User: What shape does this take?
Amino acid sequence: MRKLLQSTQSGHRVSWLELFYDLVYVIVIAKLAHLVTHGHDGHLGIQEFIVFIALFIPVWWAWTGHTLYSTRFYDDSVTDRLLTLGQMFLVTLMTLFISDAFYGKGHMFALVYASIRGLLVIMYIRVMLTNKEMRPVTSCLASGFSIGAILWFISAFLPPYWMYAFWVAGLLIDFITPFRCRPLLKEVAVHKHHLPERFGLLVIILLGESVASLASALTPQEIAMTNYIIALLGFISLSAIWWHYFEVIERIVINRELGAAQLIIYGHLPIFIGLALFASAIRQNITGNLDVTDVTLVFSISLVLYLVPILLIAHQAQEKNERLPLRVNTIVLIVLLVTISILRDYFSAIGISSLIATLMVIYVYINTPKSNGQQIKEKDEI
Assistant: This one.
């Protein structure tokens, strides 16, 4: 059956299976975040951060690959469903092998990742064979992605040094492919509602996982009142992030023409990394397993990773006369966060939680239009 180009369908919405798909990925992301903030003797090492980023990139790219396919071509057919479910099972297997993937034992991780990408290539080939109009762009994407998947597959049979080199080569080819196909991708623009909605749903799920992580850190038998206060402040900070993100997405990004949407796509890599780190920082601040200086540093880094791409995404979507307030407010907050990281030796657990929550609430307040409720009401009436 001929597949329709989903980005031209005005009613294209996230499917139930896509939401299920996102939930599986959050398990992997949560496990990665735990690895980086687990630390040794109460402190974080630079090695943990490097490993976290290095493993987060392929996990994010696997999720992004299916997301971009879905926003353009997914038709909820039996074949698409089965291929998606197959990827979900492989992502589940990924959680078993990700812990040791960067310690000379990444062979099974490489095989699983190559299989996930291989199933995505099959999805593109299916479109290529059933839709002549889409053949140029799907063949361009499928050829590049298959080379990347093959390199990952070969890496599983190589010694560690060469294995990791092949990982880098495979990812570089994957990243270059959309830019190589960009002239063709402009003709099949991503869906202006579906793509931001898909990214937004994963943000919601990550925030939900953050709340679950926060709750799991509280043990009623041993908990002190200060820990309850830290948990409350952490929840306030998470709520502020939710508020800010969806103010930007709903008010500025959704329903704007996105074209190839490269900034939104690649900009969400640091956003997701920042949210995962922020959730772990809240948990570690409650449990006390990490020194407060390290927790403070993670808080600052995670929020900067979140704020910078959000600002750039908003800047691209906004009109020139709309940009200045958000830009100034965000830069001021980033400067304050950098200052906090420099002065991290002077904060207590409850002190840094209070400061972060206060800054985020103020930031959200001054960046939320006071007439927003009326605007939404008028929009609904239309």
User: Anything to note?
Assistant: Residues 9-188 form one domain. Confidence is low (pLDDT under 50) at residues 1-8, 372-382. The two ends are 36 Å apart (CA to CA).
